[in-house]
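Readers of this paper often ask what the protein records in our data store actually look like. Such a record has a labelled line for the sequence and another for the backbone structure tokens. The tokens are whole numbers drawn from a learned vocabulary of local backbone shapes. We quote a single record here, exactly as it is kept in our systems:
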Amino acid sequence: RNKGEVEKEQTQSPIAATIEITTLVLIAAVAFSIRLFSIVKYESVIHEFDPYFNYRVTQLASEKGVDAFWNFFDERTWYPLGRVVGGTIYPGLTLTATWLYKVLQNVFKLHPVNVKDVCVMIGPLFSSFTAISTYLMVRQVRSRGAGLLAASFVATIPSYISRSVAGSYDNEAVAIFALTFTFYLYLKSIKTGSMFWGVCASLSYFYMVSSWGGYTFIINLIPIHALALLIINKFSTNLYTGYSMFIINGTVLAMVLPVIGFNAVETSEHFSGFFVLALMNGVALVKYLKRTLTEAAYNKALRLFVTASIGVMGIVSLAVITFAMTSPTLRWSGRSLSLLDPTYASKYIPIIASVSEHQAPSWSSFINDLRLGIILMGSGIISCFRPLSEGSLFLVIWGVLSVYFSAVMVRLMLVLAPAACCLAGIALSDVLEVLCKSYHITAPAPEETVTSPSKKKRKGRRNSRSESGLGAIPRPLALLGISGTIFVLSYHLFHCSFLGGEGYSSPSIILQSRTRDGGVYIFDDYREGYSWLRENTDYEAKVASWWDYGYQTTAMADRTVLVDNNTWNNTHIATVGRAMASPEEKAWVQFRKLDVDYVFVIFGGLVGYSSDDINKFLWMVRIGGGVYGDIKERDYIGEGYYRIDEKASPTMLNTLMYKLSYYRFAETVGRDGMDRVRNTKFGNPDITLNYFQEVFTSKHWMIRIYKVLDSPTLEQA
């Protein structure tokens, strides 16, 4: 765009400004309402696994105060170790919900609103904020129209909906807003050169750090962008001011959080910011010397500076390398190494590889979850080079890096989603600009044979108009293109609404299926099982299960668990995995040593629920075998692959997990019955238990609870 177009856009008419604000408000409203299907279809309930711990600590903070939250030692998790919650949690989500609850209670006097209602609505609320921050960022980089289109994309994109539906009370619900808002403030700071905006960017970064461990993406992406600007010779005082304010203040603020502390300056994920800051200071000094010294003096000073810099950088690099080598992973976290080397987790940290969110996505998921965003993303990258500004270069780098990281780990599709929306908004804005201009350009009239001076003047005007329409397309095609664009956007909204309502609004604890007559059938086994534990077991009872269900057990059953979703102690998780993979008697001895009173497993063989413990069992074996040498994966493989039928390995058929899952299963489906998940017969229909007693099985057999006996039943007899 030329200077006149920029000035014309900045001096917007009141009517256009009103339309723009109204459109943005409507986009924010759509972002909020499209995420309410879970409440309409089910009820106001917390989703998934991790959000239950967040809800539990939010209850504590709202009832007993923030000080109680910071000093909270949770003795009902990781028995007998416990957990220091204040020092091991990202507090942003919890403190945000607590603050909103206090405002609703004390300022607006909405006393019927409880903590759970606030937690449920956090996702839709912050998705509206994300749409607004995305608009501000793209508007600053390109134009108002591109900003509105980007906001509409991010408000409806399925990948982001999956993490921000009502009830999805997880860190990502607020973190994506913090990410986009930080990027907007950073770009504004380097555009204006204002220290104020640089400090604001660091404060937004601090909120991002307090909300999600994915903040390391920001602290590496921004230095990469600054380095790219140095490489293409776009250094400026504005860049120096904005970047230095962001890195210095952001690092100091991050160190305030107990969960981060000195990791902000000691781990390899943070070194890139300091390296680029040092390099930027060197460039600034060289430019200052060139501007103030004579050519001869400058050449001498440059040689001295380069020599000194090489020496200093060599010493500093040696010190950093030596410091990094004190760690086996060179000061990189396991998740970061998994991104740099996709095979790292499967080789060395099976606990990370076992999480479904850490698997590589299928190619179809890019289209299904990003829809128009991924289709238009490539065109948006090309548009960013016409012309290439600081902001457009940032979007290009963000988009390219996000594509790589999301291809390695499906969870990071969430980071790609806003980048794809920004680039798609720019691409579609350019397309609509050409179509609309082509529609308004009038075809020139036929030339006259005799030209008078006045006609020559009019002809000159027509020629200038045709020149301004250079690259335009015929008016009918322009109208067809505009109509097609409206149709595609309408279908995009329909598709995203469908996925939001059908694909991503089902809470993990409440499942549903369709009956033959089109009705809805609800599976409420999870809450049925947790209610039984809460009502029929002693308050001090210890419950063992796989770590996936730890947060839900403590929040919904209010019982002490051995392991949970925090996964901070790999040895403790391996101990549970070893017990599940051991024969019944051996597992009983291990659970008795840990004072376990009850063990429960998730079983989907009766109703076809595929996310059960039998399908997760090999990960229990791998994690347990990573710590205990007596657990070997090959012992659980029958005739070449993992199976549960009559050809399964004897070790597999004798494991505690197999027995607890298929105990009395033959009484329900018959001795030749089928496991509806594995689509095969189960191998041992004559299972007996001597050390564990079945005390509860839910309606659809999805949750099975067993009591750990004080002594074997044979001895009692």
Notes: The first strand starts at residue 73 and ends at 74. The two ends are 89 Å apart (CA to CA). The CA atoms of residues 61 and 69 lie 5 Å apart. Confidence is low (pLDDT under 50) at residues 461-468.
